[in-house]
Fold this sequence. Notes:
2 domains
Amino acid sequence: MPHVSTSLLRRLSLASMIANIGLVVTGAAVRLTGSGLGCPTWPKCTDASYTTTREMGVHGVIEFGNRLLGIVLGLIALATFIAALMHKPRRRSLILLSLAAGLGIPGQGVIGGITVLTDLNPWVVGLHFLLSMVLITATWALWQRTKEGDAPTRPLVARPLRHLTILTALVSAAVIVVGVIVTGSGPHAGDENAKRNGLDPTNISQIHADLVFLLIGLSAALWFALRAANAPAAAIRAAGVFVVVELSQGLIGFVQYFTHLPVVLVAAHMLGACLVWVATLNTLWRLRDRPALTQPEPAPATTAEQAAPTPVA
């Protein structure tokens, strides 16, 4: 049976992660252009057609395009899973991660269908986004694991720093979850007749902003602490990138709030949410190490084997 190289599996896993981020961005385009019901049924686009029709206009094209990207994402996930199965040596961790990433794609399709059938219920739409974050996590882990072996991980910093990093990651996750709730209370519903979650946008936005301030404070403290502890350069650099990404995302968030949520900035903010989470994962990952996978070396010949005469044909 032919085998797949590590470099090919690595490229496929990276492509899968990028495609999952792309699905978030195109999903934002669907909602922000009011195309959430551009295809009013599921799994068909209309009662009579699986594809958009001319009568459905640009909204149908945008919604159908997002569905097509989901199919492309599924094909990439399938190729990644097959590559993990054909990789030599076969590694259980890579197979399980690629399988998890692949199973999330039909899950997205089901949630997307429920979203349409419930007329863009904001809680279901939010679940759609959160599942994307889970899939980004799985594909990020798969991409990183292709560079490592299967030995136990080795911590690179002291336990208090690891605890601070975990706390920072939990706050980062809370920022994203509350951000989803803020979105569900705002004006961009995906369709002019879609309901919102009924929460006060000002109050929930204030909670979101408070969590953002807490996250920035924790991540800045983490960066200074890693520097003071002479942590590995990769860990310090990851924490620094994390702070920069957060500050950029926070700036976009405040500008969009005070400019009454222009669609371009809202789309940039959703992309930024994905990048914040990737930066969070990157920071967590750089605080531990695992030896790279190496091929076993041939056993050295014994003294008796070295002394034995070479047989003559």
